[in-house]
Design goal:
Elements lengths: L9 H15 L3 E6 L25 E9 L2 E7 L4 E6 L8 E3 L9 E3 L2 H7 L3 E4 L4 H8 L2 H9 L7 E5 L2 E6 L4 H16 L22 H7 L4 H10 L2 H11 L3 H9 L8 H48 L1
Antiparallel strand pairs: 1-2, 2-3, 3-4, 4-9, 5-7, 5-8, 6-7, 8-9
Helix pairs in contact: 4-5, 6-10, 7-10, 8-10, 9-10
């Protein structure tokens, strides 16, 4: 079932997600997420620069489960079904297919021959990942799986830093499950991240308790990190801030100790974790302000409804 232009089909898409959940023996959960990759409303509404988006522009329902060693989250709004997959893969392969709105500043259009091989536009992550990404994208098996997805001009695929996201406009269960099956096979071809090459234990001992947080939130690509933080729940972001913020002083002292020497990989990821915690704190403040601003409006609406009711009586 593909959505027809001009028709809001959020309810139908949620029902489709629930059907998929029943097939997988899972349940769905509520969600409220604006995604800059496919948002139609301006994201500036949060800063009061434009009108609020319509409810249908939010992804409002999700389904989460595990496949092999991957963590999968499927979410829907009135136009898209998105599958987000996380795992230990793709650190040396950063790319997007068809379009790349959310990665516009960090991914560049690949060569004509590469785009022709995939049958769509291919965008490559910037240095130092470009060479390793291009080398991997020449794999004929990977090319076949991407082409098998048959992405339309409004669909897309994004890979990088242990995350992969598939944006499709298909809601029939057979079509979705078929696309997901191809997606998982495609991800399985990605080179695994060799965690043993990242010497976390070389960090100062007082920072060892942050190692699990580094593995989850230490994303050096600014756009990738901001995108992941933007999708996270307020509860998850609060835990991140509570764990990392008290260690800012120790983190800064350690990073400053390198002086003019190049940072180690674990130090780079530690710095990215600190940046992520700062971004998470700012986002939490914004969400709290939005909630507080919404409460007076709701109260006014209730009072107005009560007055109308009394007048009617």
């Amino acid at each position: 079932m593909k959505n027809q232009p001009g028709f809001i089909t959020l309810e139908n898409n949620i029902n489709a997600l629930k059907t998929i959940a029943r097939i997988l023996g899972k349940r769905t959960y509520s969600l409220k997420l604006m995604d800059s990759q496919v948002a139609r409303s301006s994201l500036d509404w949060k800063d009061g620069l434009s009108g609020k988006p319509t409810p249908s522009d939010f992804f409002s329902r999700k389904l989460s489960y595990k496949v092999n060693n991957f963590r999968v989250t499927i979410r829907v709004n009135d136009e898209y079904l998105v599958a987000d997959v996380t795992g230990v893969f793709g650190s040396s392969v950063i790319c997007s297919f068809v379009n790349y709105n959310v990665h516009a500043t960090s991914r560049k259009l690949g060569s004509t021959s590469l785009c022709r091989a995939f049958g769509c536009k291919v965008y490559i992550g910037s240095i130092p990942n470009a060479d390793s990404t291009i080398s991997f994208l020449n794999d004929p098996s990977f090319q076949l799986f991407v082409k098998a997805l048959q992405l339309t001009k409004r669909e897309s695929l994004h890979i990088g830093n242990g995350c992969a996201s598939l944006y499709i406009q298909r809601f029939l269960c057979d079509e979705v499950l078929n696309a997901l099956g191809i997606f998982y096979q495609l991800i399985a071809l990605l080179p695994s991240e060799e965690e043993e090459t990242i010497y976390y234990k070389e960090l100062p001992e007082e920072l060892h308790m942050l190692i699990p947080w580094i593995k989850r939130w230490g994303i050096s690509d600014d756009n990738e990190r901001s995108n992941k933080i933007g999708k996270a729940s307020s509860k998850a972001l609060a835990k991140l801030v509570d764990a990392v913020e008290p260690e800012f002083s120790i983190i800064n002292t350690y990073l400053d100790s390198f002086s003019n020497k190049p940072l180690t990989k674990q130090a780079i990821l530690l710095g990215a974790l600190a940046e992520g915690a700062s971004e998470a704190k700012i986002l939490l403040r914004r969400r709290i302000a939005e909630k507080e601003n919404a409460q007076p409006a709701l109260a006014a609406d209730r009072k107005g409804a009560e007055r109308e009711s009394r007048n009617a009586d």
